[in-house]
Amino acid sequence: MLITQPNMIYSHAMPRFLPSLSALAAFEAAAKYSSFTKAAEELNLTQSGVSRQVSALEDFLGVRLFDRFGPRLVLTAAGRSYSAALTTSLNDLEAATNDVVRGFKANYAMQIGVQAGLANQWFVSLMKKFLLQAPEIKVNIQAISQNADTDLAALDVAILRGHGSWQDMTSYHLMDETVIAVAAPELIDPNQSYKPADIERFTLIQSSHRPDMWKRWLRELGEHYQGEISGPRFSQTSMVISAALTGMGLALVPYIMVQEMIAQGRLVALIDLPVSIGYKYFVVHPENKSSSKDVLRFRNWLLRETQQLRRDVAPEPRKPT
């Protein structure tokens, strides 16, 4: 006698109709570069290996994904559609994998944005204190550009340099930005007293996104310098500092980023006087994050940590004699 139980459905699980992950990765890379050769470089495979993977994928699907014109690849209509869907799926799979590895979803972490140079030279070491005090708060720290208006919407909180006004953001003053002229020890004679005009004796390392920095510094020191400001330019402050460390020349950089290097003797100040040139650092967060307990806890902690820095306002520059 055959006995069955009511409301129970018996079925045989069907295997998923899916190609291999390696074939999908090869196709995605080839679609991105329109080249098997460049895809192979990204995947650390041979060109022929990528080509075979894509051909196997086309055989599996029964559809041509590329039109081939010698070394150049052109996606077919089916290839374009498949590529878009595949990239989205692989991104989701990668995100899920990262969530498992880190133990929490990325969007559960507080997103903190910091200018790259400030993060490397100051903020990362400071964050150790916060994480010890609040180990239950997950954070994701990312470098942002100084012109970060387009990045701010995706952040919970950020540290920015400016004048304190950003659209739809609430800002709190952390500290004034002061800058100092520094070079490697072999370039500056510790027994000599230097004046601002002595910069003409050095190669001047410059920041390409702050081309007026040297002129502002000279003006604040009361120096009407008429010489040319020229020298190698770098796109990031951290690169400017690295160039100074190699002995390339004299660099003008935020004091907070090199304070420890000066104390260690790795860099020497031309004039031992940090100078304010009009900018300040702020901790900012979107107005709609004002009720977030994690954001408020981080903001208030950072304001306490920088309290002394707000008091240590740069003294009035010494006028040249």
Automatic annotation (TrEMBL):
This is DNA-binding transcriptional regulator, LysR family. PANTHER family: GLYCINE CLEAVAGE SYSTEM TRANSCRIPTIONAL ACTIVATOR (PTHR30537:SF26), HTH-TYPE TRANSCRIPTIONAL REGULATOR (PTHR30537). Keywords: DNA-binding, Signal, Transcription, Transcription regulation. It comes from the Bacteria. Residues 1-25 form the signal peptide. Coiled coil: none annotated. CDD domains: PBP2_GcdR_TrpI_HvrB_AmpR_like. GO terms for biological process: DNA-templated transcription. Residues 19-76 form the HTH lysR-type domain. It comes from Alloyangia pacifica. Belongs to the LysR transcriptional regulatory family. One of its GO terms (molecular function) is sequence-specific DNA binding.
